[in-house]
Amino acid sequence: MQEEYDVFLLTKPPFSLRSELCLKLIARSGNARIYLAGDGVYHLLSGIQEMSGCTVYACQEDLEARGISGRENIIIPENFYAVFIEDVMENCRRSYTF
Fold it and tell me: Residue 70 gets which letter from DSSP?
């Protein structure tokens, strides 16, 4: 049996109410995969990739559009949305979108 994860798609910037709720759910999950897209990639500047119990993915195009260079401890897939959809379909226990 494959391990299952809580999968989060975070598109809101840090300090938004939706982001704060998302971060609380991630902290409670203990086994999360976080996909950062749109303004969600700004969370890399505040250290989301250091949260325990989670793996962080970021969209390359959104990183480039916002001038954020690649960071350590994150995965930048070649096809971000294909990896995200596959994860939701194959490995997801619960999914959240913010």
Answer: P
Question: In angstroms, rounded to a whole number, what is the distance separating the alpha carbons of residues 40 and 9?
Answer: 9
pLDDT digits (tens, 9 = 90+) for 1-32: 678 899 999 999 999 999 999 999 999 998 99
Judge residue 17's burial from the number of C-beta atoms within 10 Å of its C-beta, 0-12 exposed, 13-18 middle, 19 or more buried.
exposed
Instruction: Record the pTM.
Output: 0.94
Q: Which two tokens stand for residue 12?
A: 């809101």
Beta strands of the chain (E only): which ranges?
5-10, 32-36, 54-58, 92-97
Of the candidates 65, 6, 13, 2, the one whose C-alpha atom is nearest the C-alpha of residue 39 is 13
9 - beta bridge partners? 35, 97
| Strand 92-97, strand 32-36: pairing | unpaired
The tokens describing 55, both together, are 């793996």
